[in-house]
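Page 42, continued from yesterday. The earlier attempt failed because a stray header line got pasted into the input along with the sequence. Redoing it now with the clean sequence only.
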Amino acid sequence: MIPKLKVPLNFSAGAAAIVEQDSQDEIAQCVVALLRTEIESRVERMEYGIVDPTFRGVVREEIREIIAHWEPRAELTIEGAEDLDELVSRTLLRLEESP
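This time it went through. Structure tokens are written below.
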């Protein structure tokens, strides 16, 4: 297992929570991070993210293309998701439920 920090970062018994690299949880974290990042907000990778992380005016097809470009693992790892449209729907729901 290659450990990655769990997002949001939290500690239990003095240790940081982790997820396994390439697990569903880690890939979902990457998609959520992508969809919460506004383009040009990361100095080291200005083209990463989406135009408006509040999804106002963002076309569903744009979201599908962004996820496919930046996180191609996502399509194959969400149980029960038959296509990328369903993946986007689940990701948006997860965003709404996150603090």
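Notes: The beta strands are 3-5, 11-12, 15-16, 18-20.
Reminder to self: strip header lines before submitting.
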